[in-house]
Amino acid sequence: MPAAGAYNGQAFSPVGDKGRFVLPPAFRKEVKEASGGSKTLCLVAHERFDCLVGFGLSRIDKLNQQLDREEERAIRLGDDSFDRDVRAGQLFQFEQIPFDDSGRFVMPDHLKELGKVEDGLYFQGAGDFFFVWNPAELARMDSAWKGAQATCRRLVAEAEAKAKAKGAKA
Fold first, then answer.
1. Which are the contacts of 23, defined by CB distance < 8 A and separation ≥ 6?
2. Distance separating alpha carbons of residues 135 and 17, to the nearest angstrom
3. Which domains does the chain carry?
4. Which alpha helices (DSSP H) does the chain contain, by range?
5. Please, are residues 97 and 22 in contact by the beta-carbon 8 Å criterion?
6. Chain segment 84-117, per-residue pLDDT in tens
7. What is the rounded distance in angstroms from the CA atom of residue 130 to the CA atom of residue 23?
């Protein structure tokens, strides 16, 4: 059994009614455990990629440790350009977003803009956190992402087929 906040796996969530998304079950369980039982999803724009990063509240301790390490490194190297306040603002700019028992949540507009979110989210586990991609943005990444790209294409196709079949039954 992985530790709370050990995110792995992949999932796709199309935008639902009222513009809500669904945190997939495996990620939902880990986020809730990593948030001490609270249904709180933390989301922030990735520093380099056009996607978002998700995690539970337990990552706050790791972010504090990271900030301390970066400050210690700057002092050791005599790097006067390091500004603890600026870096803290960067690390802790995540949004805490509530989700319901079914994992439904509303993404703030500014995060949609930063993550280039449209009509679906691809979730990719990455250990301490998970990536949250617009499938079109993931498709633009280089070959280092080919496994995630292939999985994303498959999950999107499955979701589209399921939606089409559901529409045909109505």
1. 13, 31, 41, 54, 99, 103, 104, 105, 123
2. 19
3. 10-169 (3.40.1550.20)
4. 25-34, 59-77, 84-91, 109-114, 135-139, 146-169
5. no
6. 999 999 888 899 999 999 999 999 999 999 999 9
7. 11
Cβ distance 50 to 124 under 8 Å? no
pLDDT surpasses 50 at 62: yes
Integer angstrom CA distances of residue 106 from 9, 30, 111: 22, 19, 10
% of the chain exceeding 70 in pLDDT: 95
Average pLDDT (62-76) is 93
Q: Which residues contact 58 (CB under 8 A, 6 or more apart)?
A: 4, 5, 34, 35, 36
| Chain-centre distance for alpha carbon 85 | 24
The answer to whether residues 148 and 10 touch, using CB atoms and an 8 Å cutoff, is: yes
Close Cβ partners of 124 (under 8 Å, ≥ 6 residues apart): 10, 130, 131, 133, 148, 151, 152
pLDDT tens figures, 22-52: 999 989 999 999 999 999 999 999 999 999 9
C-alpha 135, offset from chain centre: 13
CA angle 160, 105, 7 (to 5 degrees): 80
